[in-house]
């Protein structure tokens, strides 16, 4: 995500060598979704370069490869899981959570499989699960079954809030594409652990994105006051202004929780000059 084309030359310097792109992104935000790991396990040397470009307190929420979650559906996956865990080892404390995103067909009937998988994972990492089957949100028994499975291993439930996005029809090509691809699930705003993770999808119009996250301001401020350490990811369909919006959200939270640490100062896009 730190190589997003729309940011190059506008938010991030351009051109940049691949081994510098994450360092510049980390000047905007102190966390990133590791979505590329869903498609393939990275080389260990590549991950080591990520560590070199970020401070120890930078947060990676890394998606577990789809071969484990979607193709093998959490069964007979020891070998790819071992390869993935070995590859990400250089991140050390930067691996904030390993993100288990499950397909929409993964239903309450599959919770025992998830429980077995979670129970066999090394306790050296924290885990967070994202489900998309509507029953987990609509049926109290299914909600309880999943919550109990996650509680047993201190894993978090990641909500993907698309309610603001789906509140009205799409108005751009990026929104029309997201309209087809993104899940429509009810809002969930409960934390199971001291490290809740939220994924929020707004609109391409920044004003509407900001309007849609107002409820999350109250929730995140509440979590901080409870002593939790939340991670909030802000998306829009085109993601063109996502880093700017993420900083705006952080600033709005910080205005209500002044002790919250400020985000880093972005690296200038253009070289500094004397005049």
UniProtKB/TrEMBL annotation:
Originating organism: Micromonospora vulcania
Name of the protein in question: DUF72 domain-containing protein
Range of residues in the leader sequence: none
Organism classification: Bacteria, Bacillati, Actinomycetota, Actinomycetes, Micromonosporales
Alphabetized InterPro entries for the sequence: DUF72 (IPR002763), UPF0759_sf (IPR036520)
Highest taxon of source: Bacteria
């Amino acid at each position: 995500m730190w190589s997003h084309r729309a940011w190059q030359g506008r938010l991030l310097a351009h051109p940049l060598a691949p081994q510098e792109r994450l360092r510049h992104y980390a000047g905007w935000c102190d966390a990133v979704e590791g979505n590329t790991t869903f498609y393939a396990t990275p080389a260990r040397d590549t991950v080591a370069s990520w560590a070199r470009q970020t401070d120890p307190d930078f947060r990676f929420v890394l998606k577990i490869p789809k071969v484990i979650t979607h193709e093998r559906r959490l069964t007979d996956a020891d070998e790819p899981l071992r390869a993935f865990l070995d590859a990400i080892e250089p991140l050390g404390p930067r691996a904030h959570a390993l993100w288990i995103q499950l397909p929409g067909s993964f239903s309450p009937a599959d919770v025992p499989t998830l429980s077995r998988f979670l129970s066999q994972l090394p306790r050296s990492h924290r885990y967070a699960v994202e489900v998309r089957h509507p029953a987990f949100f609509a049926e109290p028994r299914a909600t309880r079954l999943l919550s109990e499975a996650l509680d047993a291993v201190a894993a978090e439930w990641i909500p993907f809030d698309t309610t603001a996005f789906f509140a009205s029809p799409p108005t751009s090509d990026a929104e029309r594409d997201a309209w087809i691809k993104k899940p429509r699930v009810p809002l969930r705003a409960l934390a199971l652990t001291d490290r809740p993770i939220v994924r929020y999808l707004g609109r391409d119009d920044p004003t509407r994105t900001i309007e849609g996250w107002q409820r999350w301001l109250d929730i995140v401020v509440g979590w901080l006051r409870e002593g939790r350490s939340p991670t909030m990811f802000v998306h829009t369909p085109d993601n063109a202004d996502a880093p700017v919006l993420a900083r705006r959200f952080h600033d709005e939270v910080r205005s209500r929780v002044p002790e919250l640490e400020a985000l880093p100062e972005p690296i200038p896009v253009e070289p500094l000059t004397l005049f």
